[in-house]
Design goal:
about 0% strand; about 80% helix; about 375 residues; mainly alpha
Length: about 375
């Protein structure tokens, strides 16, 4: 099927998601609604799998790349992060670990209790005179877009050549791009004008997750109760653990409120942060850091925590590390990716609803 037609189908469901948000006013990203609508349309045979499968596979398997421009956005919060790096980093690591292990173990416990089936496993310093002379070149949109692609591809090659998991292509690309931009005197707002052309594809890529989700609907139905209980446990444990860890490490209340929704996808996290008195820009930066950490170390933490069900592993990755965790899960198999995208979706909805209530119950005035 023509890729232009397939892109048209994915954007049509993204537009339906945008329309649903506009019509209802709900605080859920249009891309997630579009993903669910696409899954439903595939299940009802309104859309055939061959109408979207090739383009969806391409977008889903390159999901991590679309996060690089957002990651470079860390430039805008470097001052605040430098001042409170200890509570931010400590609370992020502790909470992400708690979510990964709690979600996985609760799902395994519930699954054993009701005897459901288990699926099988599957990224130069310049002299001032040079910077001034070449500034137009460094701020050229096409150059910055090409630079992002080149750095990411080289980062992928570096990890493949070395086999070092720490050399995550997303993390390496973000660090290298920030260093290049700062050395060249290019601020984030200038880069963002180019990065938006790449970031634009993140929404249809999330919608495309509806394809692997549809392919696993049969297994999801059998696991529905364990899935929902595990997601509830992961959401509550995630908010409480990040707040307590940040408070113990001396974070200000404003920073604590900014960290509370860090496990969910950026649009939901920023909306929740704004509603509870956090700093949305800091929240967005921490969401990126959480995703990078979860994508790099998530599966190792899960297995060290003795979570051994593939369904629980995939679910935990989406719950703790949102779309970046889902990208890492997709690298293993579509089945891992499907349950990870489900975790991403359910945890986003639960966090938007429950985070203010949980914070109130543990003594924070919102």
């Amino acid at each position: 099927m023509n890729m232009i037609f397939q892109c048209g189908v994915l954007f049509a469901f993204l537009a339906l998601g945008e329309f649903t948000v506009w019509l209802t006013g709900i605080s859920v990203p249009s891309s997630i609604i579009g993903m669910l609508l696409l899954t439903l349309a595939l299940q009802l045979k309104v859309v055939k799998l061959r109408h979207v499968e090739k383009t969806a596979d391409f977008l889903v398997h390159n999901l991590g790349f679309f996060f690089v421009p957002a990651g470079v956005g860390l430039m805008s919060c470097l001052g605040l992060i430098a001042r409170e790096w200890m509570p931010i980093a400590g609370a992020t690591v502790v909470s992400t670990t708690v979510i990964l292990v709690v979600t996985g173990h609760v799902h395994q416990f519930m699954r054993r209790s009701i005897r459901t089936d288990m699926i099988t496993r599957e990224q130069t310093n310049q002299r001032k005179s040079q910077i001034n002379r070449h500034m137009d070149f460094f701020t050229n949109k096409l150059f910055l877009i090409a630079l992002t692609f080149i750095v990411f591809v080289l980062a992928q090659q570096l990890q493949r050549a070395t086999g070092v998991k720490l050399l995550n292509p997303i993390l390496v690309s973000i660090v290298v791009l920030i260093c290049i931009l700062m050395s060249a005197g290019v601020d984030y707002s200038t880069y963002k004008e180019s990065g938006d052309y790449i970031d634009f594809w993140l929404k249809p890529a999330v919608v495309a997750l509806g394809v692997p989700l549809y392919k696993q609907l049969g297994a999801i139905r059998k696991q529905m109760l364990p899935l929902l209980v595990a997601e509830m446990a992961g959401c509550v444990a995630g908010v409480i653990s990040v707040v307590l860890a940040a408070r113990f490490l001396g974070a200000s209340q404003e920073v604590i409120m900014s960290l509370a929704p860090k496990a969910v996808t950026t649009p939901i996290a920023m909306e929740v942060s704004n509603s509870i008195g956090g700093i949305p820009a800091l929240t967005a930066a921490v969401v990126v850091c959480t995703g990078i950490f979860g994508g790099m170390a998530g599966f190792r933490i899960i297995r060290l925590g003795r979570v051994n069900s593939p369904i629980a592993e995939g679910l935990s990755m989406g719950t703790a590390a949102h779309a970046m965790g889902t990208s890492a899960a997709m690298e293993l198999s579509e089945r891992y990716g499907a349950f990870s995208s489900l975790g991403l979706t359910i945890n986003g909805l639960l966090t938007a609803i429950l985070a203010p209530l949980i914070l109130h119950l543990i003594g924070y005035t919102i």
